[in-house]
Amino acid sequence: MFGPQGPTLRELAVQALSSVEHGYDLLAPKFDHTPFRTPDGVLDAVAEALAPLGPFTDGLDLCCGTGAGTRVLTGLCRRSVTGVDFSAGMLDVARQRVRPADGPGIAWVRGDARALPFTAAFDLVVSFGAFGHFLPRELPGLFAQVGSVLRPGGRFAFPVFAPPRPAHPGFWLLLGFDTVMRARNALWRPPFVMYYRAFRLGTVLRELERAGLTVELGVLPGFGRRADGSPRARLVVARRPGERPARLQPAAGRVNS
Which GO terms describe its molecular function (predicted)? Predict the structure, then answer.
């Protein structure tokens, strides 16, 4: 599927019936040839929006996968960049594919985002496409972990896209996927947690603030606006209290919770 270099249907089925960790170990060599990998256009837009808030010294790519977001950090951070993921297979691919000739040093760490093996060592944390692997009840602990590894004034940034409306085919595609995953997890062990519709912006903003972070919403303008004028893509930037931050372009329109 997804072209000659992508995984076969059988390989995807084996992955889906595995644990999240083992499933990604299996998928890792072909992950970048699937739609699950964050598109370069999104990565570039986030990098462009974050650049005026820097320069940054040390960055962390949370749930780094094959290192697409880690590569973004190498252009934003001056001293070091760290990618953390709990899949050894994904980290192996990242080591091979992210090898800048110069710039900050890169470290790869196998670890769980819910129990990060770091102190307050970073002034920028990013994450791309990983939040579907966390149940809503896990967000308080996850965001508390992120806050604990940020230096005072450090920022946690990630893109969020407006969910499709019921009139759009994507709405039913995502609903169908989540329904199948819930049925799978009710009938099969170990569970494979991946839900596209569970990460709701209103809930996320509340939990970030409860974790003691100050939140700003920016707009990623290259993705346009919906019929009601609200942006299709936003950048969430949550800051640990510290020095006064630079301002983002304010987001317009409603927040979808």
Answer: demethylmenaquinone methyltransferase activity
